[in-house]
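Field log, afternoon session.

UNIT: design team B
ACTIVITY: writing a sequence onto a fixed backbone
BACKBONE:
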């Protein structure tokens, strides 16, 4: 494909849970690529598949087929993406089930649209392969349970997330993340990432609002 023909369009493949693929997923992706003559499939850092390089009218057709909204993901009442390592199901070091928790967080329907994109990183042990400290929502498994951090960012102005709670079981972690995100969406200004929000809003104040 020449540079002129590369439309630089992209579209995510929905329904992929934290980068894990079944045979049915692979067959579906292959079918889509063949039928739409997609020139490039990219595996992103967010553990998703992106179909790239379609002409704009073909992209609109594909989005319709995949039932994707026209708006940006962060305008929905859900997190932007959930990244998880293989965890206890597939990694010898994993002590907790990252994939089950990733699914539960990805399915959360919040009380309104988030101010900006929220990325979640879930690691199944202290080695933290999913860079949990650097995600808006970070979970890392420790001996006593999940460690939850909020306000991390790995972009242009990196920030280490603030420690909100430790020793959580799966249900407690998901419930606390839901409370934290609902508080964030009601309190932060539109387009304020969690990192910038936490620079202005102290961790002590956040804990008062969401713990207990
Ligand atoms: S964070 Fe731990 S459990 Fe997850 S992939 Fe890395 S070593 Fe394995």
């Amino acid at each position: 494909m020449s540079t002129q023909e590369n439309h630089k369009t992209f579209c995510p493949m929905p329904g992929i849970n934290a980068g894990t693929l079944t045979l049915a997923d692979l067959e579906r992706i292959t079918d889509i690529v063949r039928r739409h003559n997609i020139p490039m499939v990219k595996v992103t850092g967010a553990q998703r598949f992106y179909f790239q390089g379609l002409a704009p009218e073909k992209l609109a057709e594909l989005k319709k087929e995949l039932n994707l909204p026209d708006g940006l993901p962060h305008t929905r009442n859900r997190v932007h993406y959930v990244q998880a390592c293989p965890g206890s199901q597939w990694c010898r070091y994993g002590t907790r089930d990252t994939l089950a928790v990733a699914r539960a967080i990805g399915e959360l329907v919040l009380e309104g649209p988030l101010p900006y994109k929220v990325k979640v990183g879930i690691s199944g042990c202290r080695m933290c392969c999913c860079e949990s400290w650097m995600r808006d929502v970070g979970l890392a498994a420790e001996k006593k349970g999940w460690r939850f951090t909020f306000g991390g960012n790995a972009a242009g102005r990196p920030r280490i997330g603030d420690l909100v709670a430790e020793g959580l079981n799966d249900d407690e972690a998901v419930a606390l993340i839901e409370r934290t995100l609902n508080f964030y969406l009601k309190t932060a200004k539109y387009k304020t990432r969690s990192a910038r929000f936490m620079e202005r809003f102290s961790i002590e104040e956040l804990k008062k609002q969401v713990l207990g």
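LOG NOTE: Residues 101 and 127 are 18 Å apart (CA to CA).
NEXT ACTIVITY: expression trials, pending approval
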